[in-house]
Amino acid sequence: MATTTSAIRVACAQTDPVLGDIAASTAATVDAIRSAADAGADVVVLPECASSGWAFADMDESRAAAQRLDGETLRAWQSEAQAHGLWVCGGITELGDDDRIYNSAVLVSPDGVESVYRKVHLWNTENDAFVPGDQGFPVVETPFGRVGMLICYDAWIPESFRSLALQGADLVLAPSDWVPNPHQPDYLPPAAHIVTMAGAQANQVFVASASRVGVERGQRFIGASIIVDPFGWPLSRAGTDAEDLIWADIDPVGSRDARRNDPFNRPLGDRRPEAYVSAAAAGHFDAAQAGATA
Amino acid sequence: MATTTSAIRVACAQTDPVLGDIAASTAATVDAIRSAADAGADVVVLPECASSGWAFADMDESRAAAQRLDGETLRAWQSEAQAHGLWVCGGITELGDDDRIYNSAVLVSPDGVESVYRKVHLWNTENDAFVPGDQGFPVVETPFGRVGMLICYDAWIPESFRSLALQGADLVLAPSDWVPNPHQPDYLPPAAHIVTMAGAQANQVFVASASRVGVERGQRFIGASIIVDPFGWPLSRAGTDAEDLIWADIDPVGSRDARRNDPFNRPLGDRRPEAYVSAAAAGHFDAAQAGATA
Asked: pLDDT truncated to tens, each residue of chain B (294 aa)?
């Protein structure tokens, strides 16, 4: 990475992990990281559960494919980070120090693990194979700005992006395993792109989402990785249903003033928290559903 | 409206108000309401500031075109509501009972004013001509479900939709004056559609946004009104740059269980407020910008 600027080339690699096979899945990520390095990437984002596949039937299966933070996959990622002078962000099936199984994203520099995010919003049958993240939404300082992570379905819940942006995140890295969304019209992009573009725009952050391809137990994953600018528009998009690598050149720190002080377009700065109804004030959703109104 | 179901036909009319001319602007809305009635609408949504135009240079200009809630425009809307047995939601330049000028949306039934929303998030030079809304995000019970209102730029701030959804809103009506967004690629819909679809999807609400057309003081308004289902996909879309009327048949109450209890797609129900960083915890955006991190 250039030493006189925060400008970086961020890449997203969409791999096809092998369910339950850490060695094969990790090998696929190593190939992807090397391809990204060849393309000049300073940061490479890998999919959700890139270490193991995703479609675990239960907690026993996920546990059998889980690793601690010093496991085989993260050792490989750090080794590649050192070899190529880049950072890696990817999803792993994590065996926590509390012996629980998390769907985690890890940011790795040549020096080792820089940040861990445990998926807060579990989707669908994930609740059978993982426990929800217990450490909120961390944001860390890096040479290329403040970085936060989300995982897949988190992007559907606006508080995920917001929690990172309110901590000053410049760049959101989002390992994902996007699936087809029902009823998508042909003329529109995938639902995942809609919520990702909206999240970038509402929070004036760069977003790089790497999504896997392939099929596990009948569940198709679409790929369609995307890198989005802070105004909500795509910088680069991958194809669907095949391994792919995309990248974009961004300047998360150098763009900070332009992104956040524009008097005509600063949705993050235009918030009015005093007007909002919070969960605490309204009761949780179930209370609202039961009949609460203003 | 049928008496045995909450199913309704909701319409969005995109008019071209005349800046500063209440009589002409109101006449345009009356024509639009009658067209919607002819199309069988039970609810018709009109644009932001449909009573007056929008591009006021300062508070004196907006004040000269402002009305109280018993003014000419709302009397006309109630009269049409009575004549056709429908509800009207539209934007007015409101002279508040505190003598301040608000950019407001009003929901009118045959019985009169049912709800008033004063725009919370002012965009761009609106800050010169209006004061921000001071009454939060009201949600009211109607025969067709719980209804909330937003106005235009509010849709860019996710807390707007969320504040309504947490109060149980089934349907969000959004009088808007959408403008072109810089850098929109040809293959994507307007930014307004992106944030509206994301808001509908994240909150599992129907959204009907009526956007104006025309030009005021060099500012073009695009039209492109849209009605979106609770899964984030369009039910009906208007063209750009010409007066138009669209409608869709929806069942805000009858769809409640299907929308909100689907175990596979309930982003509103899947929230985990304990994990979120709030403005109170993180400090406001400016604090984050100044350097706060997790």
From this structure: 444 467 999 999 999 999 999 999 999 999 999 999 999 999 999 999 999 999 999 999 999 999 999 999 999 999 999 999 999 999 999 999 999 999 999 999 999 999 999 999 999 889 999 999 999 999 999 999 999 999 999 999 999 999 999 999 999 999 999 999 888 999 999 999 999 999 999 999 999 999 999 999 999 999 999 999 999 999 999 999 999 999 999 999 999 988 877 666 688 889 999 999 876 555 444 434 433 332
CB-CB under 8 Å, B233 with A184:
yes
- What is this model's ipTM? 0.93
| Interchain contact A235–B (C-beta under 8 A) | no
Using CA atoms, how far apart are residues A169 and A43, in angstroms rounded to an integer? Answer: 16
A49 is catalytic: no
Q: Which helix (H) or strand (E) holds B248?
A: strand B244-250
Chain B CA closest to residue A235:
B185
Write down all domains in chain B, each with its CATH number in brackets.
Answer: 8-290 (3.60.110.10)
Residue A222 pairs in a beta bridge with A213
A156 Cβ neighbours under 8 A, 6+ residues apart: A121, A195, B201, B202, B267
- Beta-carbon separation of B276 and A137 below 8 A: yes
Do the beta carbons of residue B131 and residue B103 sit within 8 Å? no
Among B164, B165, B276, whose Cβ lies nearest the Cβ of A163?
B276
Which of A150, A171, A270, A289 to mutate: most B Cβ within 10 Å? A270
Tokens encoding A248: 């974009």
CB of B254 within 8 Å of a chain A CB? The answer is no
DSSP secondary structure string, A238-289? --BSS-EEEEEEE-TTTTHHHHH--TTS-TTTT--GGGPPPHHHH--HHHHH
Catalytic residue chosen out of the listed positions A12, A49, A80, A119:
A119
Chain A: closest CA distance from residue B32 (Å): 29
Residues B234, B238: Cα–Cα separation, whole Å: 11
Report the gap between the CA of B214 and the closest CA in chain A (Å).
20
Cα separation of B52 and B67, whole Å?
Answer: 9
- CA atoms of A246 and A224, how far apart (whole Å): 10
Of A136, A167, A271, the CB nearest to B292: A167
B168, B229, B285: residue with CB nearest A288: B168
**Pairing, β B171-176 against β B145-149:** parallel
